[in-house]
Amino acid sequence: TVTRREDYVAPAWLVPEIALDFDLSPGETRVRAELSVERNGDSSGPLRLDGDALVPAAVRVDGADAEWRMEDGALLIDLPGDSHRVETEVVIAPERNTQLMGLYASGGNLCTQCEAQGFRRITFFPDRPDVLTRYRVRMAADKARYPVLLSNGDPVGSGELENGRHWAEWHDPYPKPSYLFALVAGDLAANRATFTTQSGREVTLAIWVRERDLPKTDHALESLKRAMAWDEQVYGREYDLDVFNIVAVDDFNFGAMENKGLNIFNSRYILADPDTATDHDYDAIAAVVAHEYFHNWSGNRITCRDWFQLSLKEGFTVYRDQKFSADQGSAAVKRIEDVRTLRAAQFPEDAGPLAHPVRPDSYIEISNFYTATIYNKGAELIGMMATILGPEKFRAATDLYFTRFDGTAATCEDFVACMEEAGGIDLTQFRLWYSQAGTPRVTASVTHEAGSGRAALNLRQGVPPTPGQPDKAPMLLPLKVKLFGAESGREIAPEQLVLLSDSEAEIAFEGVGERPVASINRGFSAPVIVETDRSAADLGFLSGHDDDPFARYEAMQQLMLDTLVESVARGRGDHAPVIDAVRHTLHDPDLDKAFIAEAVLLPSDSFVGDQMPVVDPEAIFRAREALRRDLGRELEADWREAYEAARANRFEYSPAAKGARRLKNVALGYINASGAPDAASLAFVQFESADNMTDRQGALATLASGTSEKRVAALDIFYNRYSDNALVLDKWFTTQALSSRDDTPQAVEALAKHKDFSLANPNRARSLIGAFSMNQRAFHHDSGSGYRFVADQIIALDKLNPQTAAKLLPPLGRWRRFDENRGERMRSELERIVATPGLSKDVFEQASKSLD
Ligand code: ARG
Ligand code: ZN
């Protein structure tokens, strides 16, 4: 059944208070709930308490047995009058919960995940975000097995019970929707610190993990403190409870969850030390810790009225965590990384059968809408409004939003209205960004009359059709542009912000004495695809001279893309302009190593494929390998020099040290691509002597794609060294799944039978199956073996964990982008999935929409 945004009706009953009583044990947990319910205004209708696979053991109203009925798993009670006390009792089995939604067991501990609709798997409740409730939670459990009992808010009592059991009670003073409820019972140790807020509240911070993981929690704790200070400085937002707890668990469907005062994390976003975590892991930990912390205001204090408004909290919070990360190091490099993520994950979504607006109109299963569109495109929407308003007005607008909607369940419209009011502008047309799916395309060309000195930048825009939206209106696009002189290299016109609102526009310039080159969408000011008629020479010039670092990176990427697309079309291309531009970038003394590393990296196989009407994975792979080889050979001495210059004595986590490691690993990749006879031993020496995971895994990745006999040795050494560390074993699986070797499809099928592989753990499932489907050449092997393999895994995983199974489906849904042979094979796997008996609605929605 389909849920539609336009069908929203306010709840008939509100629940101002709940008292929950958990008698915890893995096989049989008894949950007693006492709800105070109140009629919402003069609404009519029964009290509807959602339930998912719950059987009521008792139902009482105002202390007496009551009449009730079930409908779609929900409990319905007809109630007279306006306020009542409703009690229910259910028994659930956390250890049999393989979906990891609701209350479940992970690594011997008990924990919860309720967003979006997991609370209804714990107790009967109006499980919708516009019902805000004060929670009192009492837990009882075996003390030896579960010495630590946590829930939201503040601890208010604890004590001993008979039979080795104990109890604890928590109270959360802030009314919250049920999706923010959390409980943890386990054998955990804490890394603690205190943070004093700007108004002087002393907050006890604690990160809870298995005792042996305690040494790996300092970075997360440090990141949390930085995030708390940053939100005070940049948004004026302060924390509001006396305790802030984070718990790390190994089995988790997503990254982390912002439950009020008790964040629960996938352990991969908490645990780090130099020996086991890469720089990328360190950065991701800081970003996710900040993200969940920032949700305390953008998500918890102000939540969403309904799930169609999900981007209200997610888009804004991603925008906030991106800016936080930018402030920790190089803002330019962070922007490059964020745009790369958007292009790799969101643009293909917007161009495929699962395209949906940032504020969707309907869903079958809301879990399928935790997408790059809601999160990352949603963040770009906030960024565009910030650009249009400018920093002061944007801050005034967020202040207004936080003040006006504190304690409420709000909508995307509420947010935009605050931007309009504080910004003193009309955002009517901008709102199309919330309702129209698809990535806008902008065509830009420059004309110039040497005689009169007149120049013009001609812009055109259009949004392609997407499912259910055949015709689109022009959007409001904030484009930062600037003109440079093609001969002198000097600035002709300073940067300006063009607000393109019509389908065509001409920006005129006077007194232009030489042919101008346009630098457009600087800083990636709008999440659009820009097509220009700039020559390789113009792009090469901009890649070396543009004063906007993002635009420099972008010019280089465009030059590389044009070269690769041309090579695929003609069977060969002119590599010289790319080689010259890369040489120039490598030797530019004004650039830092982190930026250089990003700029000289070739676009991925998939991103090249995204530029072509029909993707030819083999041809793209060959063209890219040929360009890599030429870059490696022609610049071999430069790569070796960069490699040596980036060597360090001891590990340090700092922007400069990270940049050096990144460039070193990129250089190693090019030295290897050159075919130099010593490349494998260089990689192997790095692999063996590394004092950190970035260098060790970088070397392993190079070896894993090669044919040297050192490859097997390195994989074995790595496996044996880390066989008791699940997060590092995930890397071992992923590195092999991403290998560019010819035998990767067979190797991955064999790895799926490895004793350490299991679909039950989402990280492990993604590390192999998810990574493999990102390996364009291997997944799209023309035999169709990759499609069959991934479909088999999805069908098997769906029986355990539909949410995680559904997340593996989108790569199979892109069948229209490939040739007939591949497309047909992909489609038939989708049909096989849809025809599977007992399929979840999660996988059904993704597969059936992909076939439409
Ligand atoms: N709100 C969480 C976050 O962004 C993600 C929760 C995902 N849950 C889900 N059922 N899709 O940090
Ligand atoms: Zn979030």
TrEMBL record:
<dbReference type="GO" id="GO:0016285">
    <property type="term" value="F:alanyl aminopeptidase activity"/>
</dbReference>
<dbReference type="InterPro" id="IPR001930">
    <property type="entry name" value="Peptidase_M1"/>
</dbReference>
<keyword id="KW-0378">Hydrolase</keyword>
<feature type="domain" description="Peptidase M1 alanyl aminopeptidase C-terminal">
    <location>
        <begin position="537"/>
        <end position="851"/>
    </location>
</feature>
<keyword id="KW-0482">Metalloprotease</keyword>
<dbReference type="InterPro" id="IPR027268">
    <property type="entry name" value="Peptidase_M4/M1_CTD_sf"/>
</dbReference>
<dbReference type="InterPro" id="IPR042097">
    <property type="entry name" value="Aminopeptidase_N-like_N_sf"/>
</dbReference>
<dbReference type="InterPro" id="IPR045357">
    <property type="entry name" value="Aminopeptidase_N-like_N"/>
</dbReference>
<dbReference type="Pfam" id="PF11940">
    <property type="entry name" value="DUF3458"/>
</dbReference>
<dbReference type="Pfam" id="PF01433">
    <property type="entry name" value="Peptidase_M1"/>
</dbReference>
<dbReference type="InterPro" id="IPR012779">
    <property type="entry name" value="Peptidase_M1_pepN"/>
</dbReference>
<protein>
    <recommendedName>
        <fullName>Aminopeptidase N</fullName>
        <ecNumber>3.4.11.2</ecNumber>
    </recommendedName>
</protein>
<keyword id="KW-0479">Metal-binding</keyword>
<dbReference type="InterPro" id="IPR035414">
    <property type="entry name" value="Peptidase_M1_pepN_Ig-like"/>
</dbReference>
<feature type="domain" description="Peptidase M1 alanyl aminopeptidase Ig-like fold">
    <location>
        <begin position="438"/>
        <end position="532"/>
    </location>
</feature>
<comment type="similarity">
    <text>Belongs to the peptidase M1 family.</text>
</comment>
<feature type="domain" description="Aminopeptidase N-like N-terminal">
    <location>
        <begin position="66"/>
        <end position="180"/>
    </location>
</feature>
<keyword id="KW-0862">Zinc</keyword>
<dbReference type="InterPro" id="IPR038438">
    <property type="entry name" value="PepN_Ig-like_sf"/>
</dbReference>
<dbReference type="InterPro" id="IPR014782">
    <property type="entry name" value="Peptidase_M1_dom"/>
</dbReference>
<keyword id="KW-0645">Protease</keyword>
<dbReference type="InterPro" id="IPR037144">
    <property type="entry name" value="Peptidase_M1_pepN_C_sf"/>
</dbReference>
<dbReference type="GO" id="GO:0008270">
    <property type="term" value="F:zinc ion binding"/>
</dbReference>
<dbReference type="InterPro" id="IPR024601">
    <property type="entry name" value="Peptidase_M1_pepN_C"/>
</dbReference>
<keyword id="KW-0031">Aminopeptidase</keyword>
<dbReference type="Pfam" id="PF17432">
    <property type="entry name" value="DUF3458_C"/>
</dbReference>
<dbReference type="GO" id="GO:0008237">
    <property type="term" value="F:metallopeptidase activity"/>
</dbReference>
<dbReference type="Pfam" id="PF17900">
    <property type="entry name" value="Peptidase_M1_N"/>
</dbReference>
<feature type="domain" description="Peptidase M1 membrane alanine aminopeptidase">
    <location>
        <begin position="220"/>
        <end position="430"/>
    </location>
</feature>
<dbReference type="GO" id="GO:0006508">
    <property type="term" value="P:proteolysis"/>
</dbReference>
